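notes to self, project folder thing:

trying the whole complex as one job this time. last attempt i did each chain seperately and stitching them together was a nightmare. two parts in total, labels are on each line so i dont mix them up again. if this works i'll redo the older ones the same way
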Amino acid sequence: MHKLTVPISDEEIRSLHVGDTVHLNGVIMTGRDAAHKFMIEHFIRGEVQPEDAALHEELKELLDGGVIYHCGPVVKTHEDGSYSFVAAGPTTSIREEPYQGDVIKHFNLKGVIGKGGMGDNTLKVCQEQPAVYFHAIGGAASLIAKAVKEVIKVNKLEFGVPEAMWVIRVEDFPVVVTMDSHGESIHKQVEAQSQAKFAELIG
Amino acid sequence: MNDFNQQDLSEIFVELIRRAATQLPGDMVNALNKARDREDEGSAAKGAFNTILLNVEMARENSTPICQDTGTPIFEISYPLGVSTRKLADQIRTAAAIATERNYLRPNAVDSLTGENSGNNTGEDFPTMHFHEWDEPYIHVDVLLKGGGCENVSTQYKLPDARLKGGRDLEGVRRVVLDAVQQAQGKGCAPAVLGVAIGGDRGASYIKSKQQLFRKLEDRNENEELAALEDRLYEETNELGIGPMGFGGKTSVLGVKIGSLHRLPASYFVSVAYMCWANRRASMDISLNDEGVEVQYA
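result (full assembly):
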């Protein structure tokens, strides 16, 4: 079992291989469909507009060597206005495939957490960057929420609670490396094996 | 004389939603335990099942959602003659909003045109409700919380299917169900429960496939041919080796449930409702007595 703390170094990423179990620590950010679309449109393709500049700078610092978590949490708002995560499992990552590679490169991300794996472009960017894909256990929302020790802040709450960009501090967030920086993907391996069996079954 | 139409059942529906969101049914927990025991020590699959089962326990203890995607709440309501379904529907919508406020549900209803989240799980045809009048004197309610990840890999086929060499018969059904599981891989949060409907028009077929998910895993199909196909597909889908989360492993599917509908001569649809391991269903019976209402949750 590997224990990693954000920001993560290139050496640490290169030492990871598919199938490795990792406990992640440190400050990460949630981001799913609306967040990825926003980052691409406002930060990456074309010039950053003045109204977006502050957030851009904040994210550049936060995400350098950092991690984005594909997650739309259930969040409790306390009386003093602070937040805590009630349920926070991963969402399906493949929807971010058109954006992920560019977001990883732009912010120097070292990893994304999600479920279901991602496609060839992200795998290629993971090799070049280097970065990895961390698979959280889909549906394990109560358990992962316990690993979220603090909700530091939220950006773009107007996207709605699930789609907002939540900045969180995690402790021993359990994940499995399913796409590494050496070009390996558990998802491809399993799909190839099951495809062979499928072909046999339907003759 | 007591009358269902004079009762406010909102809080009773909130409790049903809470149970569905936070307590995985016993048959599902048993099946997941057995699946864990089958996996090899130290494998990613074993680790995944351990995490799943620990999470199920924590959710029940803390009364927090098993999965943060609390999905589309789908209600199937059987009611006696004379009950106002309009009132029941209003109470269910109220209950959904209260359950959201109490964090049993995530705000999950998004306006498709504006992209705005209603914030309380109500909206156009949201939650989903189907009402059925019956002869019993009490109200029976089933609810299923079906998340988006598994809904996105649910699918519908039209037989014959040239690619899969599937004709308009149970062998054709077998082929498309295997294909649906192969296509889904781990993306729908395997291991799955599969609800399958044969026939109907496209809409009825999808609804019927989801209604199969209310059947307990041990429930045996009354139709022998369908029972045999359920058993065979359970074996064969697990031979694919997709495993929990698509990590590879011995269990990809926990149950297959098949129903059928009459169809048009020209159409032969097969719908596959893929349900994640967090098969969150709950039921209750509401009856009237001298004191008011009596509820039995199951």
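what i see at first glance: Chain B is about 35% helix and 20% strand.
need to look closer tmrw
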